[in-house]
# Entry
Amino acid sequence: MSEQYRRLAVFVDNPGEGNFIWIVLESTGDPAVWLDLETGYDSHPTWIEAFDAGNAALRAYVDDENIGPVEEEPGEGEEDA
# Structure
């Protein structure tokens, strides 16, 4: 089984004073292009609280915290009919 490492990140935005939200992003094949995977619905009063909540959400994309965010290469794991 071949695995591909996912390039995930947490970004914290501050759309208003005391209103911090987190966003989980994933890089595409183009390193300059990132896709929003998930955005927190609740705002947080501080940056660090939003960052911690975003990291908790990011960890949900990881099956094994000792290995990190991996997924099977496209076409792997499919059985021939």
